[in-house]
Specification:
Layout lengths: L13 E2 L2 E2 L1 E2 L10 H13 L10 H21 L7 E4 L2 H16 L5 E5 L8 H10 L2 E5 L9 H7 L4 E7 L11 H9 L5 E4 L11 H4 L3 E5 L10 E5 L1 H6 L10 E4 L4 E3 L13 H17 L1 H20 L4 E4 L8 E6 L4 H10 L2 E2 L1 E3 L4 H7 L4 E5 L6 H18 L1
Parallel strand pairs: 3-15, 5-6, 5-7, 7-8, 8-9
Antiparallel strand pairs: 1-2, 4-10, 9-10, 11-12, 13-14, 14-17, 16-17
Helix pairs in contact: 1-9, 2-9, 3-4, 10-13, 11-13
Length: about 400
């Protein structure tokens, strides 16, 4: 597969007089020209509010917004476009489900299951509703490689379980969880499942019908789209039965001071003026990724991950954190004797962008006995030459700081 770096204008710049090596894709990915053009086109040619107007610009904007929803439906293989709710990102999608679905079902001593590798966005919303409803949060443990212990997951499932909320891909380790199996095991107990797909959508082909998950959430900015836009997929029958999450314009059928009746899905969950430009940019990003090909992207990134893992593992005093059987292009590591933030600072002076910290996964860091790691996360525009630059930067940091 061609690297297609030329499609991404930001990658042509230098940082600290060095060519930019962008390896912070798990935090946010860069945007192809097609996405930038889609945003510019909306604001220069068809900027108007949607749904309410009968004038030409509003009708064009509404049509483009609906097309973006249909594009998203195809990207995740949902049965219907009304199963796609536009939100601000994965975090809002999870909070929507926590408050509009889980909160209404929880009784004292009921249980929600998460895993030890979750991002804070898939922990804190469940803690909040569990605290409010006197319910209990249960945690599936992981082994030292970063794989879920499925026997323990099976043991946790019981008649009090009301929801399983699981990440498809760990943002800190790159572990790919066996989501289809996890969903099937939960459904055998009549337990619904939410999948946090924020880190999976840029790397894997998503098929919500094959997974049979009840909810799937992901963010636009991690899959080469704009910030401030995301997606909640939900099975239509479940969304239909859920009360609104927020109140305002567009999510209503009628309003009087005595009573309000609510719109159909998905508009019921899209109160107010949405991020129209963001939805159009997301649609352009998903079209772009689909044209490149998810299978081609996955194959290229797996080859690059193998090269990067071998390269870093060969360095003295460097430990790769997370060696699960199945991974995507996320490579966390520590340099013995050097703080991860110091490593990242030295790398930045070499023009290399990585992430250092707990990666919004403090319970996972605690499980691994770490305060933080340095994380290099890959995209299909990265190259082996950039991995070689990363290796040289790490060696420089080790010699300077150890």
């Amino acid at each position: 597969m061609e690297c297609r770096r030329a499609d991404f204008p930001i990658l042509q710049q230098t940082v600290h007089a060095k060519p930019l090596v962008y390896l912070d894709n798990a935090a946010t990915s860069q945007k192809p020209q097609a996405v930038i053009d889609a945003l510019a086109r909306f604001y220069t040619e068809e900027c108007a509010n949607i749904h309410r107007g009968v004038h030409a610009l509003s009708e064009r904007a509404t049509h483009a917004y609906n097309v973006a929803r249909a594009t998203t439906q195809r990207f995740v293989n949902a049965r219907e476009s009304r199963e796609i709710v536009f939100v601000r990102g994965t975090t809002e999608a999870i909070n929507l489900v926590a408050h509009s679905f889980a909160r209404t079902r929880l009784q004292p001593d009921d249980e929600i299951i998460v895993s030890a590798m979750e991002h804070h966005a898939n922990i804190v919303p469940w803690q909040l509703v569990c605290q409010e409803r006197a319910a209990v949060l249960r945690v599936v443990p992981i082994n030292d490689d970063g794989d879920l212990i499925l026997q323990e997951y099976e043991r946790l499932l019981n008649p009090r379980t009301r929801l399983v909320a699981i990440t498809h891909v760990s943002n800190a380790l790159g572990t790919v969880n066996p989501v289809e199996q996890i969903v099937a095991m939960a459904h055998a107990h009549d337990v619904p499942v939410l999948v946090d797909g924020a880190q999976a959508a840029p790397h894997l082909r998503i098929d919500v019908q094959a997974l049979d998950c009840d909810f799937y959430a992901f963010s636009g900015h991690k899959v080469y789209g704009p910030t401030g836009i995301g997606v909640l997929y939900g099975k239509a029958a479940i969304l239909d039965a859920m009360p609104p999450y927020q109140g305002g314009g567009n999510m209503i059928h009628s309003v009087t001071f005595e009573r309000t009746t609510f719109n159909d899905i998905p508009e019921r969950f899209e109160a107010g003026t949405p991020h129209i430009a963001g939805a159009l940019g997301l649609g352009a990003a998903l079209d772009y990724v689909s044209a490149v090909g998810l299978d081609a992207i996955a194959a290229y990134e797996q080859d690059l991950l193998a090269y990067a893992t071998h390269t870093l593992a060969a360095l003295p005093r460097v430990r790769v954190i997370g060696t699960a059987r199945q991974k995507v292009g996320i490579l966390s590591f520590v340099v013995d004797g050097v703080h991860p933030h110091d490593v990242a600072t030295v790398l930045d002076r070499e023009g290399i962008a990585v992430r250092a910290g707990h990666h919004c996964a403090q319970p996972l860091m605690h499980r691994l006995g770490l305060q933080a790691t340095t994380r290099a996360s890959l995209a299909f525009y990265n190259t082996r030459d950039e991995i070689d630059a990363l290796r040289a930067g790490i060696e420089r940091a080790r010699k300077m700081l150890a």
